[in-house]
UniProtKB/TrEMBL annotation:
<dbReference type="Pfam" id="PF00665">
    <property type="entry name" value="rve"/>
</dbReference>
<dbReference type="InterPro" id="IPR050900">
    <property type="entry name" value="Transposase_IS3/IS150/IS904"/>
</dbReference>
<dbReference type="InterPro" id="IPR048020">
    <property type="entry name" value="Transpos_IS3"/>
</dbReference>
<protein>
    <submittedName>
        <fullName>Transposase</fullName>
    </submittedName>
</protein>
<dbReference type="Pfam" id="PF13276">
    <property type="entry name" value="HTH_21"/>
</dbReference>
<dbReference type="InterPro" id="IPR001584">
    <property type="entry name" value="Integrase_cat-core"/>
</dbReference>
<dbReference type="GO" id="GO:0015074">
    <property type="term" value="P:DNA integration"/>
</dbReference>
<dbReference type="InterPro" id="IPR012337">
    <property type="entry name" value="RNaseH-like_sf"/>
</dbReference>
<dbReference type="InterPro" id="IPR036397">
    <property type="entry name" value="RNaseH_sf"/>
</dbReference>
<dbReference type="InterPro" id="IPR025948">
    <property type="entry name" value="HTH-like_dom"/>
</dbReference>
<dbReference type="Pfam" id="PF13333">
    <property type="entry name" value="rve_2"/>
</dbReference>
<dbReference type="GO" id="GO:0003676">
    <property type="term" value="F:nucleic acid binding"/>
</dbReference>
<feature type="domain" description="Integrase catalytic">
    <location>
        <begin position="102"/>
        <end position="265"/>
    </location>
</feature>
Length: 271
């Protein structure tokens, strides 16, 4: 009677009644939504595919897109940005890196930069040190002042955490914090070679620009943090846990920085 009322074939009704729920699809949809929420809405289909495959799921990008559409998940990604071009180098600290961002081993080239984060009623300043091999954050510091003490703390953390390595190149922009006597003395003490971008050329330090872009668009609340303590705790989790251990990176063929370094150790052990 109902089929006749709604003009539906009775065979369709019986087929629907016998249909069983796809447990695997439900599990995939649930995990996709969980990973999307963990990224605070930043993960797109490419990122989700990489994470799901690393967890043992056999899934493609088309299916992930379909699951995202069904759940109403839309990735928040910023638009493109055009940077100024410049050619002026410091004569005493040349651009030794020259945009050679592909590094074959850890602790060969580190990059550093500073950005600002709103916390409470004022700006806090974040300094980060990045290992170019795996794009792993190896040191960071947060402070009320964007001075040389801040950048030195981030460098100290990187040097200690990486086992006090030798023959490292450190690349940054021409900020006064990195060209200060205090910072250059710290590099000399650690036997680290210094390299600097050309003035006003952000592309010379593109990996750091990309990291801060991801941090601010994916993680930091649009209104900032209530306190600096809250900012330090949340940013620490993003840099040292989510970004280093969970978030896939295109430069690592979809692996997180930690997994990329572990893969190198495994391959070195086999060889």
């Amino acid at each position: 009677m109902l089929c006749e009322l709604f003009d539906v074939a009775s065979s369709c009704y019986y087929e629907f009644k016998q249909r069983k729920p796809d447990a695997n699809r439900i599990r995939l949809a649930s995990r996709t939504k969980e990973l999307f929420n963990m990224s605070r809405g930043a993960a797109g289909s490419r990122t989700l595919v990489s994470i799901l495959r690393s967890e043992g799921f056999e899934i493609g990008r088309f299916k992930v897109r379909k699951l995202m559409q069904e759940a109403g998940l839309v990735s928040k990604q910023p638009g493109s940005h055009r940077y100024k071009q410049a050619k002026s180098e410091r004569p005493d600290i040349p651009n030794l890196l020259k945009r050679e961002f592909s590094v074959v081993a850890p602790n060969q080239v580190w990059c550093g930069d500073i950005t600002y984060i709103w916390s409470g009623s004022k700006w806090s300043y974040l300094a980060v040190v990045l290992d170019l091999f795996s794009r792993r954050v190896v040191g960071w510091a947060l402070s009320n002042k964007p001075d040389a003490d801040l950048t030195c703390k981030a460098l100290d953390m990187a040097w200690e955490q990486r086992g006090r390595p030798n023959s490292v190149m450190f690349h940054s922009d021409q900020g006064c914090q990195y060209s200060s006597r205090q910072y250059r003395q710290r590099l000399w003490r650690y036997r680290i070679t210094q390299s600097m971008s050309r003035r006003g050329n952000c592309w010379d330090n593109a990996p750091m620009e990309r990291l801060f872009r991801s941090l601010k668009t994916e993680w930091v609340p649009a209104t900032g943090y209530l306190t600096q303590t809250q900012a330090k705790r949340d940013i620490s989790y993003y840099l040292m846990d989510y970004y280093n251990r969970q978030r896939p990176h295109q430069a690592n063929d979809g692996l997180s920085p930690v997994n990329a370094e572990n893969q190198l150790k495994t391959m070195s052990g086999i060889c």
